[in-house]
Amino acid sequence: MIRAIFLLILLAATASNAAEKYNRDDWSRWIDADRDCQNTRHEILIKTSQIPVTFKNEQECSVKAGKWLDPYTGKTIIDASKIDIDHIVPLSEAHKTGGARWNAETKKQFANDPLNLVATENRINRQKSDKAPHQWKPPNSQYHCEYAQRWRIIKDKYRLEYEYEEMIALIIMC
Predict the structure, then answer these.
(1) What values do phi and psi take at 121, rounded to 5?
(2) One digit per residue, pLDDT tens: the chain, 174 residues?
(3) Predicted TM-score (pTM) of this structure
(4) Are strands 117-121 and 83-87 parallel, antiparallel or unpaired?
(5) What is the SS3 assignment for 38?
(6) Cβ atoms within 10 Å, residue 82
(7) Is the distance from CB of 77 to CB of 121 less than 8 angstroms?
(8) Distance from the first to the final alpha carbon of the chain
(9) d(C-alpha 132, C-alpha 121), whole Å
(10) Three-state SS across 90-155?
(11) Count of H helices and E strands in the chain?
(12) DSSP class of residue 26?
């Protein structure tokens, strides 16, 4: 009995320690799933541009320009180098709320899931960093409800845990 309790405590401590050891490199992002030379970043840029994109070279692997409406700010951006692809639910947030237990394939799937990706101004993406909704909201208040809905859909799809403050923020946003 004492041995079983000790093992449970050890397992809980191990899980807790795993969550503390987040390493972004464990989450294979920007893969070329269809092997057409365009990685996830460029696929999202192509998919979300309001006009046909232009590429950096003839191979058409890297997007140079297009026309994107940044939902976080409401601004229009035409230069692809001014855009980051944001993980709505950040990788580190996923890691600490259940993703630490995932295998490499599930982490890769999460990191490249178009449902969890949005093209946004790089300055805003860096401002958001790995913050949850109770710590950061898009400056464009008209996007708050959609942001909260997508956050919930992603967390539920991957069976990630919620924090109390996060849930309150999501309810207030929508």
Answers:
(1) -55, 130
(2) 444 333 333 344 444 444 468 999 899 889 999 999 999 999 999 999 999 999 999 999 999 999 999 999 999 999 999 999 999 999 999 999 999 999 999 999 999 999 999 999 999 999 999 999 999 999 999 999 999 999 999 999 999 999 999 999 999 999
(3) 0.85
(4) antiparallel
(5) coil
(6) 15
(7) yes
(8) 48
(9) 18
(10) CHHHHHHCCHHHCCHHHHHHHHCCHHHEEEEEHHHHHHHCCCCCCCCCCCCHHHHHHHHHHHHHHH
(11) 7, 5
(12) G
- Is residue 132 within 8 A of residue 163, CB to CB? The reply is yes
Backbone angles phi, psi at 124, to 5 degrees: -70, -40
Tokens representing residue 9 in the block: 């405590």
How many residues are there in the chain? 174
